[in-house]
TrEMBL record:
<protein>
    <submittedName>
        <fullName>DCA17 factor</fullName>
    </submittedName>
</protein>
<dbReference type="GO" id="GO:0016567">
    <property type="term" value="P:protein ubiquitination"/>
</dbReference>
<keyword id="KW-0472">Membrane</keyword>
<keyword id="KW-0812">Transmembrane</keyword>
<dbReference type="Pfam" id="PF15802">
    <property type="entry name" value="DCAF17"/>
</dbReference>
<dbReference type="InterPro" id="IPR031620">
    <property type="entry name" value="DCAF17"/>
</dbReference>
<keyword id="KW-1133">Transmembrane helix</keyword>
<feature type="transmembrane region" description="Helical">
    <location>
        <begin position="198"/>
        <end position="218"/>
    </location>
</feature>
<feature type="transmembrane region" description="Helical">
    <location>
        <begin position="230"/>
        <end position="249"/>
    </location>
</feature>
<dbReference type="GO" id="GO:0080008">
    <property type="term" value="C:Cul4-RING E3 ubiquitin ligase complex"/>
</dbReference>
Amino acid sequence: QAAAGGGRAAPRACGVHNVCRLLSRRAHGFYARDAGVAHRKNLGLLRKIMCQESTKFKNVWTTHSASPIAYERGRIYMDNYQCCISSIAQEPRILYQKSKCAKSEKIEDALLLECPLGEMLPSPSDYKASLIVLTVQNWLLRLSADSGEVLEKVYLAGSCCKFFRYLSWDTPQEVMIVKSAQNKLPAAARQAGIQQTVLFYLAVFQVLPLSFIGMLEINKKIFGNSVTDVAVSNGILIVMYSMGLVRLYNFKAILEQFMEQPFDLGQEFNWNGQVGVVGKYPFGLPCNIKITDTPPLLFEASSLENAFQIGGYPWHYIITPNKKKHKGVFHICSLKDNALAKNGIQDMKCCSLEPDWIYFHPDMSGRIIHVGPNLIKVLKLKEVKNHADQMEIAEDFTIVANRENCVNNTVTVTASGRVVKKRFTLLDDDPEQETFKIVDYEDELDLLSTVAVTQIGADGRAHLDFHCNEHGILLKSIPLKESWDVTYSHEVYFDKDLVLHIEQKPNRRFSCYVYQMVCDTAKDDD
């Protein structure tokens, strides 16, 4: 227990050893000298300051680019990650600017890597944030997040695969997956009758220190001919099929059962007649995990467009019945026995161009967020009264779009007295009505953020609202100064005292707008 103000660490809860009591006492502030308590208090103060009426968010910086713009933890990346800009300073400033890279060095994907707490790491550079990037030529690089310096290099593709394209987390900040594009034979090879059985390659790494766990292939002979995609998350291998089927397998068990030989990065090897060094050019990584039999199936479900989510407590999953007529209808079922929860069919009956969407709340509360054009429902799982083994879906709170001034009369009367009947009604997400476009959660401040947009003619106006995550009460509304075109692609990031809006226009034109919190009681246009 670190003392926030210095001095000797406090004794552990005066002999309290029960975990529940320790957590309860910590929540009530018994350990005031704990550094974590000080951090939570500071965030609580920041939340109060942010939600004050006198606090404004000022547009401090705007930039435009012909290449995609990305944001990660206070850093803005431009020019295919060749330029890094800090958004933490009073005005964004360049951290580093590299010379333009060749097409062969283009970065395909990237992940931000942050130092784990309480672990001894082999290199001083490991304690600072770094960026793991995947290049078009199958190099995996670890770059310093502050300088862009290359800290580590791993060559991925040996003779087995030449098209690694995607980075993702199995366990966030611990186990990383590098996935290939789907293997497809050239047209001439297909015409010659050559069969392609390997669909994807997955390379698995432990991070900080970066170490190679293994590489495996997803083969038609094992998983079937209709596989369309694969993913790995939280120790589960997720295999998706063209008919909407989703199958789950124990990924850790697969690694243990089918590992032929472990290898370390930098180790010399003789593998299947090849001699080389693991992770070095031109040999890359050996495919040392060979799945020879179908692994035990943990779970399977059929869902429209392979949409499948797991969460809640006790565990539940969300699917859409696998027929087009059910698009927009969500079933919430128990993972234990596939039983549909009471009130488990969620259908907003939207008449809109863009469908509503649903997901488990990222605050780990087990709640569910269902977002429609003009309504956000936060739902919770609870036991059915007098039936402890059955769960029901109940409404926790709702957030409703401001459509007070919206009039949608189907019958109007002209000045001459003629009655005119409309032959159509407005869509639920008609641009001229306030419509929810983005819903996000700021975990450090425990705020639910929403972006609502209204477009009149060519001019669209958006505002970012902060809601109490527990009760849904509106705490703050921030108007965005720039025009918002609903036909463009938009991303909005809310990160403590920073709001960042990235917009993609036609012809690959990108814009970035940065807003920062300012506390000023003076009334001005900002």
